[in-house]
Amino acid sequence: MLKVNNINAAYGKIDVLWDVSMRVAEKEIVALVGANAAGKTTMLNTISGLLHPGAGTLEFLGRRIDGTPPYQIATMGISHVPEGGKPFPDMTVLENLEMGAYINETWKKRAETLSQVYEFFPILKKRSGQLARTLSGGERQMLAMGRGLMAKPRLFMFDEPSYGLAPIIVKELFEFIRLLHGQGMTILIVEQNIRHALEVSSRGYVLENGRIVLEGESIGLLDNDHVRKAYLGL
Ligand code: ATP
Question: Could you identify the atom of ligand 1 that is nearest to the CA of residue 45?
């Protein structure tokens, strides 16, 4: 579904990604893991068109998307849930969710999708009239995931869903990701919580200083000496 081919990316003169290649097949959950500043968010920003690659190509569903503006990439079916959720703070929960469906086709089906979101996250229904700025960190993350789902994506990308949240909330969010996968969703998850990400995914890539240094089945990566020493403290 997604092919990332030899991508380089930079912010002005600061190079961040070098020769990164990745694949995500339909219905797969793939993890991109690494420490702070490895370039994980930069990779997601490049896929969703917020940053254009300096070299390399991106293909989604067989079409080149490098150089395509973000709104078109979203319309093609990629939902990107940013780190911390980043809802629209002065809009209510319901308005935020509806913003996710602001694409012709999905708008028509918004009532149906909204009831799915409320089924996953009943707290969002309770908070539907509340301003997003007043939500807790966990609720903000749920709202961002719900907003992403409202777009009825083909590929769902999550940037560090566990960031700064209590273990019980993280468990709930990962449960949501598992449920989505069970329903056939294709998922790319970026995490520095490597254990969580590799436990939920089938394959993974390890990014260090902007380069992929390891890739393979997640179960094998969890058992890899370098991963165990460098990331799992074992
Ligand atoms: P974290 O897990 O801490 O979120 P990350 O792996 O997602 O880290 P990125 O956010 O992609 O890392 O950042 C990679 C590098 O790019 C960092 O050194 C960061 O300082 C730099 N960087 C990120 N955004 C910008 C920007 N807008 N302008 C300049 N440099 C940036």
Answer: 11
